[in-house]
Amino acid sequence: MASSKWLRIDWNKVFFDFPAKLLSIALAFGLFFFNRLENIVPKTLLVPLSLSFPERLTPSENFPRRVRVLVRGPRDLVEQIGDTDYEAIGSVTEDRGEGIYMVPLRLVSTGGKAPLQGIEVNLEIDELRLELQQSVTKLLDVRVPIVGNPENGFQLESIITSPPAITVRGPRSKLEPLALIYTEKLEVSTRTESFSARLQLNTPDPLIELTSGTLIEVRVQIVPIIDEKSIEELPVLYTNLSPSLKIVSEPVLAMIRISGPQTLINLTGAQNLSPTVNLENITLPGTYELPIRWNLDPRIQVLEQFPLTVKVELEGR
Question: Which fold has domain 136-224?
Fold first, then answer.
């Protein structure tokens, strides 16, 4: 009899102020779900996109190298996910020739990390529209863009690249109009000597692949500018005349035409160029035919001179 007393339910007490009790229960459930929803946050990732195609096909238009991934879940889990945790993969397995392909995309986890439970991870797009063309190779000649000019009096004689041409691979429509490929710009301002450099090739289009590396060896030949000059009516000077002799022949005027580095030629003129005749070891009066000598820089070449010799008449004092 005692146990039945304890099991008896007083329904009057249960239903006393029942609407208020029901409202309290509803508010409790509402607060519970509100807190859960408040803790659910979204996040957008930008993950790498990897595509594969049949061997003879390649994209003929630029495509995104990364795609957006939408993440939603508890804040503490979402904050653990980064752009490097996933990769989008697309593959074309059927070769229908050149044309438009719809490439299905799927998301894979990277780095061996297991997918987190309780979060949603979805690609923003599930397929990619892409035009594919025949993949071809072509040999392109290498060119070096030059910036500036060598120092005054010097010139750029030649540029030799190694290799002189490289093979590239890419879509047919991109390679057909190409004949040259250029390196980065090369500065030659104020240079006075030949030099070597290693230059980076500039890919003409992101869809074009360099098959043999991106560096080019360059040998630049810089040489002096060769100039010519004629100098005339230069009085011939006589040196080492014996004190016992005197010159009685008429004065002689000489001319010379020279060639050499422009910087030297510009500095060479009547003021510092003297044709001379050496009278050393001549001790007796008489008429002598002697060569004219010129005090020239060894880098200057004589193209023409007149006269080559002079007749000198000497008398005793």
Answer: RNA Polymerase Alpha Subunit; Chain A, domain 2 (2.170.120)
